[in-house]
Every structure is written in C-alpha cells, then in structure tokens.
Amino acid sequence: MPNSSGVVDSVNAEELGLMLDHGSFVPYYEQIVGQVRSRIKAKKLKEGQTFCSEGKIARALGISKMPVRQAFQKLRSEGLLVIAKGKRPVIGSGRVLWNFQQLRGFSEEMRRRGLVPSARMLSMEIVEPEIDVAQALKLTPGERVYRIRRLRFVDGEPVAVVTSNLPARIFAGIDKYDLEKQSLYQVFEQAYKRKLKWAEEVIGAMNAGEEEARPLEAQPGSPLLVIKETTYDIQNVPIEYSVSFLRGDRYTASVISVRKE
Length: 261
What we know:
This protein folds into two domains: 13-91, Arc Repressor Mutant, subunit A (Orthogonal Bundle); 96-254, Chorismate lyase, CATH 3.40.1410.10. The strands form three sheets. Strands 4-5-6-9-8-7 form a six-stranded antiparallel beta sheet. The radius of gyration is 21 Å and the shape is elongated. It is of the alpha+beta class. It is 26% helix and 30% strand. It has helices at residues 13-16, 28-41, 54-61, 65-77, 106-112, 131-137, 184-191, 210-216, and strands at 81-82, 90-91, 96-99, 117-127, 145-154, 157-167, 196-207, 223-233, 238-247, 251-254. α2 crosses α4 and α3 packs across α4.
C-alpha cells in the first residue's frame, strides 16, 4: 500500500492489485501491463505516485525479473511509467514527453529513454519537391529530392509516420542503405560526413484521416501531434525537411522558453 509520501512499499501482490493467472496463455508481462493500465485508469494509481521496483514486484508475484522488466518497458513506451536512472519508477500521465531542446533522431531519443525503436519502410522515391519542401531546403529549380516514408515503432507498437525529404544532389545513393535498421542521422554523419548542427521545428496538431490512421493502428479522427522539421548541418545548409505524424495519445511536446532581459 502507498505510505504517507505516496510510495508503494508493500510487496504483497494482492495489495498491489497484481495477480497472475498461471493457467492463461497471456504472457506474464502482458498481464502485468493490463492490470497496471486498469489501476491507472481507475485512479487507484495516480500520476506522480512512486511505484515498486522490478525486484519487489517479481518477488511479490513469485516470478523472475524478466517479464516484469518487459512490462516496465511497455509501460514506459506508453508514458504510463517514468523511470529515471537511479530513481524509483513513477506513475506517468500516459503520454511520452518529447524534448525539443536537443537535436536527436527518433532512434536516439527512444534509446535514451530505455525503449526499443524500430522502423518499417513504407516508400522511397526520387520526386519533384512540393513548393514548401523546395523552399525549406533552398533548392534550385529542377532539383529533385529523395522522399522517404517510414513507420516508426516503439517496443513493437506503431507510434509515428515520418516522411523525410532529402536533396538528391547531396544524398546520391542513399537508397542503398537499410534505413529500417540504420538511423538516418547516423547515415548523414557517418556515410555522408554531414555533421548536424541545429533544426527548426513547427509543432501542431490535427485529427487523423484514413491515410494517417491506418499505419498507426489508430481511429480516424483521433488526435495526432504534427512536427515539421528542417535540419541543418554545421555549414548551415538545410539537408532534411521532414513531416512527422505522432499518435497524440502517446506523445506530447516539451519546450523550455527563457525570457531575455
């Protein structure tokens, strides 16, 4: 049970509200995730409340740490559990904060949070850029771009559709790289020697249409976080213009503003 500071310090499974069905075909970690989700939804576990460690839960349930660790990873990916290094887990809001103060790729950001990112290529083609793309990348008339559309996953769940536009004259042959397994930022910096410096983001929101909802396994009309980003190298050359649609029930933006004197 929670103590006066809000810490769940009991190791009794019944008091934690976590009971495993050992005869079920549902894996232990999924049972744990489902029960924690339900307790959060019922307000029995509240945002900001400190939760038990993996070890305490494993001992209370009489199982190894592995399924508990898997459950924690999935709960983190859903923003339901916040785990900072060296600190006890805390019940989250259900959304993952995306910090725009540092320039990181999707894979880098997810790994930093202890999550497992992956990608599936939806399409890659060389095309004439739309006007907004050409303007963002400062292209001359007649220049073409690689348009790369990928579905991004966190711990196996689809969370974002990202369309990247890259100047073909800078990234000739990029279609030879496996961008399902390699970070696009790593390819920029290591293969093309384009060290990244800064990015400009425009953040908005929209309701998902059929085209956006289908790959994200979301309902049409559900909220999406929309990020339009222009990324520059150390020579201040714009090298990528991307549009990302992120599930609004999984992500929210985090920006720090400082007043100048």
